[in-house]
């Protein structure tokens, strides 16, 4: 009995024949497509139909690639953020330094401009720190006696008077600000020339005009300048601005509060005026005025001869009467001794006194 495979597994033409046939069909299709371009539409339709299947087949690979790229990009972004933050900090610091330098340059330009307007020689200095005493208004500068700084020299900035040098060391100097309680400066109102003295008010940071008459011509907004009467501050430097005026008719004096124009708490560099203003010499002292004399002519003294002093004349006595019998009250102090009774008493004659010359 001959064995035959089932119908499902029946083999047709041999494999070599199939390969040959399909190879020939492929060659024909290639030639037709290359020469006539007739299969372009078929290719587009097949690509469009198979595109969803292609994307579905590529999804696992794309998911793996996307996940790897996500983690790699996340780490790269974190690193980049750290670098940008450090760069931003460095840039911010450089920007702050640049701003500080710009502000410092602008302030120095203002100081140089103020230096040209000051009639005396000045020295540029830098503030090192505030004084240790919290109750005092003092600062320490980086210039000392080696730089020619001396006691009493005024210190200014581009806006006005700052204070006065009160202590000097070889490399540093201490400046007492205008607002210190121990400081006073003679000022005058720029508007009308009214003179007064401004005193510091300590921690309040303001100035006070004392002993002002209640009806004095001072208004809010008036500018006070140095009068130059003390021989320390040159005349015409700005000092303060009036911010409050209290006039009380009942009080003996008014109250005037002023705000300093100089940047006492803002500046970094200041100018030290190296010489005091030259004042005119004092006039010589006047000789004492002669004593006033009478308008009458002076009379020469008269030479008047003095009469000789004689003892007083006694009354005539009896021979039997002794001087001891006279009462004590009638016996003169310069009476001559008693004459014995045996001798007669001679009469005494008194010469006439010469008449005074007229």
From TrEMBL:
<dbReference type="Pfam" id="PF04085">
    <property type="entry name" value="MreC"/>
</dbReference>
<feature type="region of interest" description="Disordered">
    <location>
        <begin position="278"/>
        <end position="358"/>
    </location>
</feature>
<dbReference type="InterPro" id="IPR007221">
    <property type="entry name" value="MreC"/>
</dbReference>
<feature type="compositionally biased region" description="Pro residues">
    <location>
        <begin position="278"/>
        <end position="290"/>
    </location>
</feature>
<dbReference type="GO" id="GO:0008360">
    <property type="term" value="P:regulation of cell shape"/>
</dbReference>
<feature type="compositionally biased region" description="Pro residues">
    <location>
        <begin position="308"/>
        <end position="318"/>
    </location>
</feature>
<feature type="compositionally biased region" description="Low complexity">
    <location>
        <begin position="331"/>
        <end position="358"/>
    </location>
</feature>
<dbReference type="GO" id="GO:0005886">
    <property type="term" value="C:plasma membrane"/>
</dbReference>
<feature type="domain" description="Rod shape-determining protein MreC beta-barrel core">
    <location>
        <begin position="128"/>
        <end position="273"/>
    </location>
</feature>
<dbReference type="InterPro" id="IPR042175">
    <property type="entry name" value="Cell/Rod_MreC_2"/>
</dbReference>
<dbReference type="InterPro" id="IPR042177">
    <property type="entry name" value="Cell/Rod_1"/>
</dbReference>
<protein>
    <recommendedName>
        <fullName>Cell shape-determining protein MreC</fullName>
    </recommendedName>
</protein>
<comment type="similarity">
    <text>Belongs to the MreC family.</text>
</comment>
<dbReference type="InterPro" id="IPR055342">
    <property type="entry name" value="MreC_beta-barrel_core"/>
</dbReference>
<keyword id="KW-0133">Cell shape</keyword>
């Amino acid at each position: 009995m001959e064995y035959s495979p089932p119908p499902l597994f029946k083999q047709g033409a041999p494999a070599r024949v199939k390969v040959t046939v399909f190879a020939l069909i492929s060659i024909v299709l290639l030639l037709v497509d290359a020469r006539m371009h007739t299969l372009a539409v078929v290719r587009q339709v097949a690509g469009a139909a198979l595109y969803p299947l292609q994307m579905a087949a590529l999804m696992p690979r794309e998911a793996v690639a996307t996940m790897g790229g996500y983690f790699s990009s996340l780490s790269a972004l974190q690193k980049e953020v750290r670098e940008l933050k450090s760069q931003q900090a460095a840039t911010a610091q450089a920007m702050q330094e640049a701003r500080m330098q710009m502000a410092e340059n602008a302030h120095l330009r203002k100081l140089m401009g103020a230096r040209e307007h000051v009639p005396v020689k000045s020295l540029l200095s830098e503030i090192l720190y505030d004084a240790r005493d919290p109750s005092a208004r003092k600062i320490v500068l980086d210039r000392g006696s080696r730089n020619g700084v001396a006691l009493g020299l005024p210190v200014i900035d581009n806006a006005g008077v700052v204070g006065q040098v009160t202590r000097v060391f070889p490399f540093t100097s201490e400046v007492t600000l205008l607002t210190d309680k121990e400081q006073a400066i003679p000022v005058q109102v720029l508007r009308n020339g009214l003179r007064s003295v401004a005193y510091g008010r300590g921690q309040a940071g303001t100035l006070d005009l004392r002993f002002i008459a209640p009806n004095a011509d001072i208004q809010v907004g008036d500018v006070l300048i140095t009068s130059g009467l003390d021989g320390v501050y040159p005349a015409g430097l700005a000092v303060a601005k009036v911010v409050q005026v209290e006039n009380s008719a009942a009080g003996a004096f008014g109250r005037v509060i002023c705000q300093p124009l100089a940047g006492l708490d803002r500046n970094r560099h200041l100018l030290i005026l190296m010489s005091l203003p030259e004042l005119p010499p004092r006039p010589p002292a006047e000789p004492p005025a002669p004593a006033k004399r009478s308008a009458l002519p002076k009379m020469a003294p008269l030479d008047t001869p003095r009469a000789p002093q004689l003892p007083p004349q006694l009354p005539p006595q009896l021979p039997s009467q002794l001087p001891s019998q006279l009462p004590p009250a009638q016996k003169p102090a310069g009476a001559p001794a008693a004459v014995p009774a045996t001798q007669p008493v001679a009469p005494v004659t008194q010469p006439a006194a010469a008449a005074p010359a007229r």
